[in-house]
Amino acid sequence: MNDNEFDLAARAWLADGPMRMSDHAVRSTIEEIRTTRQRRAVRPAWMATPVSTFARVAIAAVLVVAVGTLAFNVMPRPSDGSRVGGPSPLSSVTENGPIVLSHASGDGEVTVSAPSTWAAWLPGKAGGQAGDVWFGGLFHAEDFFGHGEHIDFVDPVAYDAWCAANGGSPLLSAPADAAAIAQQVIADPNFETTTPVPTTIGGLDAVSMDVTLAPGGKACGIQMIVISRWIHELGPESGSRLRLFLVDLPEGMSVKTLAITVVAPEKRFEAFVAETAPIIESIEFHPNGSAISPHVAP
Amino acid sequence: MRPTLVEAARSGDEEAFASIVRGSADGLFVVAHRILRDVGRAEDAVQQTFVTAWRELPALREAERFEAWLHRILVHACYAEAKRASKWSANVVALPIDGPATRDTTDDIATQDALDRGFRRLPTEQRAAFVLHHYLGWSVAEIAESLGVPAETIKSRLRYATSTLRAALDADARTTSTTSLEQMA
Predict the structure, then answer these.
(1) Fewer CB atoms inside 10 Å of the end CB: C or N, chain B?
(2) What confidence tens digit (pLDDT) does each residue in B10-67 have?
(3) Residue B10's closest CA among A127, A47, A72?
């Protein structure tokens, strides 16, 4: 057996075997996480500012509200159509079809449906390092380390301001609507873009364009805020293409303009766009968080 | 890999980390299973990996290094599981490793049996290097960086693992050929 034959035999042997961790083990892992305290690292200097008494009172008030909200969300309620158990997805099983899950953002303002092979993380304004920025996303549930294929949501204006406040150079020169943001992305030398075309998202007018990193364009590292990173965050790798949808939202939404992106490696891009079209079409907006009871997709 | 999720989890967001668990558990499980060759121990190793990662995540400086970092924790969890398993099995009489009494005539299955027997003889460190290289397709440099050991050490582990598995395959081939000769006689 020569080296090539040995490599092939070894790969075939390693590929043979169970490919999925049991659901029970995954659930039990997540439960274990919820009872484990994170070891806190030393905070960056810009975060280590003195906290005034007023700020402490304010933080305490926010925590009380947060705990109250959490309790409200997790308390079981009658099955009269109201939400039970917080933002867990609702599912529907179509006859002989895939299981479709409906996900609502943490604030109930955005809902989206996707096959159960997708995982959703839609904290709205509640998640992550840039805590005041609305964002979320969907990705292949079993492809976390995979192929850079995902759908993301972000408030570009707020993210841009956050970048500027934390040492980055903003991409946007001023608060703007969807059309103006599209023009500013086009004007940015770091990107190559297609001509924006009108479309609709959730029944609202939107613009759509494809964006790639220009030759020599700067891609932002996560810890390196060189220019506004919101668009890089959505498609940071060279060789990937993103389809950018920009939609102006109605009164009553906490975000004025939402950016939605479909990201995939160039060679998989068209297939991925086709695959994700039903997910994009399922997006709905709910002013004032009226999506307390997310719909179940057909 | 989703840097935003990693950053959120690093900031203490349990839901973000739960999404990471759901998204990456299967991938880690397959690697752990191939190293440990046992479903229960592989699940234990993955669970321990996530708990450790969650606890230590705030200390991870670069979210882009999360995948390598997580695999490093996983491999160490596999070492610990293997050590625990060896304590439990110390009083158990090992079954002969000569293979099934009736051999399958399919060459592929015979090869896989031989690789399986050879692999079980390897120390866990060599198993891990072999799986990361041949299953995940990582280079020696990537494995060395992820595990935090010199590249020469990884090369050496791969060399020993390969020679042990080749020896198992050669022994299997000799057995097959002897059996065939006996049948012809």
Answers:
(1) C
(2) 888 888 899 899 888 999 999 999 999 999 999 999 999 999 999 999 888 777 788 8
(3) A127
Scanning every residue of chain B, which has its alpha carbon at the shortest distance from the alpha carbon of A21?
B26
Q: Do B51 and A25 touch (CB under 8 A)?
A: no
pTM of the model: 0.61
> Residues with Cβ < 8 Å from B76, sequence gap 6 or more?
none
ipTM over 0.90: no
Dump pLDDT digits (tens) for A248-257.
Answer: 999 889 899 9
Interface test with B, best of A5, A143, A145 (most B CBs within 10 A): A145
Tally A–B CB contacts below 8 A. 160
| Strand partners of residue A136 | A153
* CATH class of the domain at B100-185: mainly alpha
Q: Domain extents for chain B? A: 1-90, 100-185
Q: What is the DSSP letter of A121?
A: E
Contact A185, A244 (CB under 8 A): yes
A10 within some domain: no
Q: Shortest CB distance from B2 goes to which of A30, A129, A137?
A: A137
CATH of the domain at A142: 3.40.1000.10
